[in-house]
Amino acid sequence: MLALVEKPMTKDWTKKAEDIASKIAEHAAKHDADDSFVAEGFAALEEAGFFTALVPEEFGGGGAMISDIADALRIIGAACSSTALAASMHSHIVAVAMWRFKNQGAPTDGLLKRVVAEKLKLVSSGGSDWLNSAGKMEKVEGGYRLTARKAFASGSTVGNLLNTSAVYDDPEAGPTVLHFAAPLKGDGVRIEPTWQTLGMRGTGSDDVVFDGLFIPDAAIAGKRPQGEWHMLFHVISMIAFALIYSVYLGVAEGARHRALEMAKKRPHDPLLAQNVGEMENRLLAARLALRRMIEIAETGSPGQETTSEAMQCRTLAGQAAIDTVAKAMEVAGGAAFYRKTGLERAFRDVQAARFHPLQEKPQLDLTGRVALGWDIDCN
Questions:
Q1: Are 14 and 71 in contact (CB under 8 A)?
Q2: pLDDT of residue 8
Q3: Three-state DSSP class for 1?
Q4: Range of the domain at 75
Q5: DSSP 8-state secondary structure symbol assigned to residue 202
Q6: Which pLDDT belongs to residue 353?
Q7: Last residue in a domain, options 71, 94, 121
Q8: Are the beta carbons of 328 and 256 closer than 8 angstroms?
Q9: What is the secondary structure of 304-358 as a DSSP string?
Q10: Quick check: 155 and 203 in contact, CB under 8 A?
Q11: How far apart are CA 156 and CA 207, in angstroms?
């Protein structure tokens, strides 16, 4: 395995991830088969302190680096991709909050402390919102009433807070996106079990529906013009996808491992060796792209150039992971078509790498605009 980055050791999160992976691998097929949430995986993560790992030690957390948790997610992703992907959504929110507190003086320390004290599990709606956001905020005395449906809310089954946003039609500033954390339990909130999908079936990424939920003024963490790039999104782009795409590298590595186990039992064949060589090339491409994403996350400065490069790596890592699993299917041969091998599940799960922001075409547009010196907010 290619080392991702050199880093000082904090706690052995890699060893913890290996222990967790060995415990939960047997449950992955069951959750895939019945669309059920990966409860055993989240229980194992909580017992190991994973959900507080990225919180600074001075706040009672584990003080892990992004590269520590990226490596852990990679290992867990090879065993149970749904556990890893759902966990990456919590992790990237914590990582962004940590970076903003340390580097921008943002008042995110309260959230970080609550993650530890209240054992919070955070859920993101970023993939279904992004720059335009969705949902409506109506101004009322002391705050707003939220009406919205948020899709792809991974971990919503057990989550406590949804980090999300919605649009307020400001009479002076025009459409304005408000950012806040909304509770996932109580009056005005319901979770609709909509998550019947091609892959990543155990993530519990159901729809969260808000029907007039009151959001107090004090809960509004930020405001921005709708549809425009904001510094917050440059920070998210710089950090979040290194963690999320570590999962897909793990899926690819798990598929490669299973395919090689099957191929080694077959007679020597030059065509087989060439197919394995192609699989190895695509896996190396995914590893290299992810290594650069982690370097950017840990050492970069947010801005449009950094966002462009991080998103290029997101496209390259995702496509290479998908290609690796497809080639693993070919290496394994017809046996890969059977569920018992786990390869067809990996093939379905890795397809989700296509759908996180920025998808390939928007990424190409952004990268081209940055290279040309054009305004990235104009159509």
A1: yes
A2: 42
A3: coil
A4: 13-121
A5: T
A6: 98
A7: 121
A8: yes
A9: HHHHHHHHHHHHHHHHHHHHHHHHHHHHHGGGGGSGGGSHHHHHHHHGGGGSSSS
A10: yes
A11: 8
- Assess whether 84 and 202 both reside in one domain: no
Distance CA 23, CA 43 (A): 11
Output DSSP code: residue 124. E
Token reading at 323: 């290609």
CA 7 to chain centre: 22
266 in the same domain as 220 = no
Question: Which residues share a beta bridge with 108?
Answer: none
Is the CB of residue 155 less than 8 Å from the CB of residue 123?
yes
In the block, which residue shows the tokens 């991702």?
Answer: 4
Tell whether 238 and 349 lie within a shared domain.
Answer: yes
Tokens of 363: 């990424």
Task: Evaluate whether residue 6 is within a structural domain.
Answer: no
In a domain, 3, yes or no: no
The whole-angstrom separation of Cα 141 and Cα 305 is 41
pTM over 0.90: yes
CA distances 331 to 108, 265, 346, Å, are 48, 12, 14
Residue with tokens 């003024």: 217
Q: How many domains, the chain?
A: 3
Specify the length of the chain in residues. 379
Per-residue pLDDT tens over the stretch 188-233: 999 999 999 999 999 999 999 999 999 999 999 999 999 999 999 9
Kindly state whether residues 205 and 164 are assigned to the same domain. Answer: yes
Q: Are 81 and 247 in contact (CB under 8 A)?
A: yes
Q: Measure the CA–CA gap between 149 and 154, rounded to whole angstroms.
A: 14
pLDDT of residue 379: 62
Place of tokens 């998210």: 236
